[in-house]
Amino acid sequence: MAFRVGKSVMLNFGNDLEPVFIFSGLALLLLIGPLLKWYISSMTQPDFRLLKIHYVELIPFLLLFITSFFITKNWFDANNRQSVIIFGSTIIFIYLHFAFYIFISGKVLKKTYKKHTETLKTKSQKNILSWLYTVIIGFIMIWISYFLNIIENSVPYIIGPIIYSVVIYYLSFKAFKLKVTDITGSVFKIKDDIVLFNDISQLIIDEKLYLESDISLSSVSKLVGKSVQKTSEAINQYANQNFNDFINYYRIQDAKKMLIDEKTKKYTISSIAFDIGFSSLSSFNSAFKKFEGTTPSSYRKANT
């Protein structure tokens, strides 16, 4: 992409740019497509490896790149019918080739998303999916800028390199923000942590263990037969919460029902707090406000 930007700037502001730079620059678009697909695949498939068959995808790039060294300036400037047809056909093929690989890359990403829709996603998995969708959108914008450049007099030529320069800078910023430079496709491996979190969820949610006032990370760890650290990591990864917030969230959901239910309307806020597992009214009020943005008494008044 850096070479593409440089070539476009030289073509726009320079004079008599040699055809080798123009055609080798165009050839790089035939390289960017396969690289994009391989990158998307490597970030979504834990066991992805480049095979010999993959290198066949580089043939169009190699052919045009090698050919660019044999194109003379006289032929390029001839502007006869033959040169116009060859150059025009090459441009159309390159842009369709690029669009095809963006489409294929999007299909790979969509397949991965669907595959993991039914399963819980870790923070790293969510970051990768968010990042890769941003990449696809960015490359669509780049392709549109290329397409607009071939429509005569529609937009200035320099708009193209400006757009894809901005896109590349933004993608770089997004990559570091999501810390995807430290993540690989291995995060999509099926891990025992998912099974562990399902066991934890069954105990805490299905069996309503969260209602017990003396519940602790240590006691839950013993019940699932794992270390405290392992149990904590599973909850942090798949619930995106620490242990206390994970427990309190489900307590608050019960509290909300009890605060507005006709059968429990006569209960005091203190009794509700103790019934759902809180050991003090202050901790209940703090947790309720954290999740709902209001106090229990205000919530009751607003919903009755």
Dominant shape: elongated
Relative helix content: 55-70%
In total, the number of domains comes to: 2
Low-confidence stretches: none
The beta-strand count equals 0
- Let me know the average pLDDT: 86
Transmembrane segments: 20-40, 52-72, 84-109, 130-148, 154-171
GO molecular function: DNA-binding transcription factor activity; sequence-specific DNA binding
Protein name: AraC family transcriptional regulator
Pfam family, one: HTH_18
Structure overview:
GO terms for molecular function: DNA-binding transcription factor activity; sequence-specific DNA binding. Helix content is 70%, strand content 0%. By secondary structure, it is mainly α. Helix 5 runs antiparallel to helix 6 (123-149) and helix 11 (243-260) runs parallel beside helix 14 (296-302). The model has no long low-confidence stretch (mean pLDDT 86). The termini are far apart. It folds into 2 domains: 2-188, no CATH class; 192-302, Arc Repressor Mutant, subunit A.
